[in-house]
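INFO batch 0412 | record 1 of 1 | parsing
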Amino acid sequence: MAALLRLPGGPDDAGALVEALLTAADTRETAAPALAARWRQLANDIGDALDQLPTPRN
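INFO prediction complete | emitting tokens
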């Protein structure tokens, strides 16, 4: 399944979202390991998609 993620700050906001997911996953590792794993997978998927974006031209 694909999703379109529109963020006002573009890739920088997406990067912050990845960091937030990873931080949240770390805090839930013992209480909810399945949820933590899901959040890590989401962060990895978003990060992989960001890596596939073309390099911006300045």
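INFO post-check: The chain has a mean pLDDT of 90.
INFO record closed
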